Backbone:
């Protein structure tokens, strides 16, 4: 539905080729600083192919890595690049371990990452300036007019007039019912009857029709005019009377359907990608980390207090289906398991306090991930008692159960974890959980995982 899709695809190809060339240059420069020559040894030539291939895969997860237009801010652009390099480093490190590439110089790898990041970042700055220059030139203008003067017309005008969206030139409004008191009245060029002649005289490229869709004859007439004179005719339906927030419009065959909430994880490809990552990541943790820490944690728990090593509890999952959630036991055996832990809770053991502080108590939940009851990233599964209570006092609480719960989540890395003595604290958690659902991306999951590990290292004051 993006009329500039071919342009973005071309940009993507050019920038990907440039990125590979800059990565090659980075390898040569790094090899020179490390070994005093630009000629790569055979193993580094092969490693360059792996490095570039992983970059191609990583950049494919986020179209914004290749966006140089003004749709997103410069800060967001470089944030996307940093996230892409972090994910690239994670995948490449996994490849080094899996393929036993121990002979690769760590210093050369560091030099390569630094030079690649600097060169690719600088190339984006150059392309952004070049894009801004070209799109602001006269030859890049797409001249357009808007039919109508309602909320849809004004919203469209304000969006296209944004400085961050160059390349279009507004030529005026046309409406039979123009309001003389409107702050935009000076930009009205005439009635709808004047539209066709104006378009021919001023070489208009696009007409945006924002009026109600009940005048079929008018729409048919304008459609025929545009077809005969090589003008693009676009209809912008006004849903402001019935929908008071952003919506998604998609088509099932030729039937338009409106979704009042963004639902990235309703797309099959996104669900498959997320599930595949969950399986690979949970298997890696279970096979690599769990065998090492399990004996240590099990002995520590058993030496301090009597009771089982693992704690099992029913938690509400996707669509409120209950599942058995696994954790390391962090409390003395008690009959108050549906009561949320509080600061200095006497039920928590000394070992349990450490496990909670470092999130190690949740390691067994990777088995829940493998079984499909949980995801690595998602809204945290609350207690059943919390589900019953907060569903009645927080309007959007149940929305968080549209997706699979996670070991870590957006709310937790944003500072909203621990005790929720007051309703507004749970409201903030729900707010962040809904934001996660509506803005999900693979890169967002990677960022949350990185922040979770970082918080484990530095410690969290609300973890108890």
Residues:
């Amino acid at each position: 539905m993006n009329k500039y899709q071919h342009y973005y695809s071309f940009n993507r190809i050019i920038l990907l080729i440039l990125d590979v060339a800059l990565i090659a240059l980075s390898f040569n420069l790094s090899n020179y600083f490390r070994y005093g020559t630009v000629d790569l040894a055979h193993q580094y030539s092969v490693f360059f192919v792996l490095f570039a291939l992983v970059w191609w895969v990583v950049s494919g997860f986020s179209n914004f890595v290749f966006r140089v237009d003004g749709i997103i801010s410069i800060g967001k652009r470089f944030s996307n690049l940093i996230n892409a390099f972090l994910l690239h480093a994670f995948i490449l490190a996994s490849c080094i371990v899996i393929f036993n590439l121990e002979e690769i110089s760590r210093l050369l790898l560091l030099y390569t990452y630094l030079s690649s990041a600097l060169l690719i970042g600088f190339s984006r700055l150059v392309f952004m300036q070049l894009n801004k220059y070209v799109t602001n030139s006269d030859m890049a203008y797409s001249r357009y007019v808007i039919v109508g003067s309602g909320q849809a017309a004004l919203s469209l005008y304000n969006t296209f007039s944004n400085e961050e969206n160059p390349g279009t030139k507004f030529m005026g409004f046309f409406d039979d019912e123009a309001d003389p008191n409107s702050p935009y009245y000076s930009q009205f060029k005439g009635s709808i009857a004047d539209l066709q002649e104006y378009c021919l005289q001023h070489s208009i490229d696009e007409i945006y029709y924002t009026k109600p869709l009940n005048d079929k004859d008018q729409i048919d007439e304008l459609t025929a005019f545009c077809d005969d004179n090589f003008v693009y005719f676009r209809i912008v339906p006004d849903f402001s009377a019935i929908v008071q927030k952003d919506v998604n419009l998609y088509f099932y065959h030729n039937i338009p359907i409106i979704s009042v909430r963004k639902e990235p994880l309703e797309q099959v490809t996104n669900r498959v990608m997320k599930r595949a990552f969950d399986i690979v990541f949970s298997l890696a943790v279970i096979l690599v980390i769990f065998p090492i820490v399990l004996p240590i944690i099990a002995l520590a728990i058993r030496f301090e207090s009597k009771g089982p090593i693992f704690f099992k509890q029913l938690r509400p999952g996707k669509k409120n289906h209950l599942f058995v959630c696994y954790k390391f036991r962090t409390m003395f055996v008690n009959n108050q398991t549906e009561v949320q832990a509080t600061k200095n809770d006497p039920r928590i053991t000394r070992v349990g306090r450490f496990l909670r502080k470092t999130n190690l108590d949740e390691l067994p939940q990777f088995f829940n991930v493998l079984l499909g009851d949980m995801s690595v990233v998602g809204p945290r599964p609350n207690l059943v008692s919390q589900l019953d209570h907060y569903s009645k006092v927080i309007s959007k609480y149940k929305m968080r159960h549209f997706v699979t719960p996670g070991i870590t989540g957006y709310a937790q890395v944003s500072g909203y974890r621990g005790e929720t003595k007051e309703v507004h604290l749970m409201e903030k958690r729900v707010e962040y959980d809904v934001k996660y659902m509506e803005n999900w991306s693979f890169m967002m999951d990677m960022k949350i995982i990185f922040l979770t590990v970082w918080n484990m290292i530095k410690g969290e004051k609300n973890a108890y």
